[in-house]
Amino acid sequence: MGGEGKTRLALRRLGIEQRVLGVSDGSGWREHCSNFFELSTNPPKHLVEALVPEKCLTIYTGPSFHGKTYLALATAVSVVTGSSLLGHFDVPEPLPVLYHIPEMSESLFRQRLSEFRFGNLPDKEMFLCRPMEKGAAWTLTSPEMKRSSQGRLVFLDTMMYFNDATDASAYSEVRQLAEGCFELLSSGCLGVVALYHPPKYAASERVITLENYVLGSAGYGGILGACLAFRCLDHETGHIYLQQLKARGKLLKPFQVEGTPPTLKVPPGQSPYLEDLMKDQEKRDPRYTTACELFEQKLPQRTIAEKIKVSVGTVNKWRKRWLEEKEQPEMFDGG
Question: Are 66 and 161 in a shared domain?
């Protein structure tokens, strides 16, 4: 037995192991549980109305060069100044921000910050950043990360730099990320906004879903407080489409952002659903309409596939869409 083991054994025999080493014997378990009446009655708070909840992990997800960093910087400047995000989503009060961006150099990041007029902030300490030249990314559980995050909204650009992940699709990596975020939040961090590259196959999906943008073969969707998926529809005009995938509180319809920094804004009126943007409604596959009628009759999927001569996989995908349309018809009506 090594020196540490002998010390633990001696302290255990003296009955003071828990007091000296902080080792729990489980007797205090009730302190970590609540009944209904012990739960907080306070409603969930948002740092950015409907988009960024307090004390939660929010993920901004989308393929490379689709606008994640620009939208994150727009969020940061709104939070720091207390101004509405994109001229549309209110920020209850100004809050300090720490933006981690280990994949971008200082000069390039400063150029991006200038576009959003971060240099005009009256209080220079409200926005701090840690670019590439400052060294390797701090892990979420490091003392530096915990202390620097207290009282701030933290941005991780991008998420996997902060997890020491060897397999981003493994549940063990998801748990590691979740535990790191929970430690930050419990030690005083106001919230975490993480930018995430979805699996490559998700970039070709016609409809943005939580499954193909975040969940993948792991469980990232389970640890989120909110999630937005981004898709750039026109790189020249800066026309970006946003879909709220996981909401805490207000469920938003899909919306569009237009313009270039710092004039990104939500255009007036409601945005159409993504599928309506990407194909002519008149050319909708008539087999899908037939499938919907058969779904109403509660026929087996294999029977439906044989009737309309498509694969069972296609029928399964159509059935999911049909169920979504039934649950939230206003998001599929093109209005």
Answer: yes
**pLDDT (tens digit, 9 = 90+) per residue, 169-187?**
677 888 888 889 999 999 9
**Please, what is the average pLDDT of the chain?**
82
Radius of gyration of the chain (CA): 24
Record the tokens describing residue 177, joined without a space: 């990320």
Structural domain boundaries enclosing 298:
280-331
| pLDDT tens string 209-246 | 888 888 765 678 888 889 999 888 887 777 888 888 88
Cα–Cα distance, 202 to 216 (Å, whole number): 9
As a whole number of angstroms, the distance between CA 61 and CA 196 comes to 5
Return d(Cα 127, Cα 81) in angstroms, integer: 10
Residues 176, 153 within the same domain: yes
Integer Cα distance of 264 and 85 in angstroms: 9
Residue range 149-158, pLDDT digits in tens:
999 999 999 8
Query: Cβ(243)–Cβ(213) under 8 Å?
Result: no
30 is a domain residue: no
CA atoms within 13 A on the CB side of 182: 8
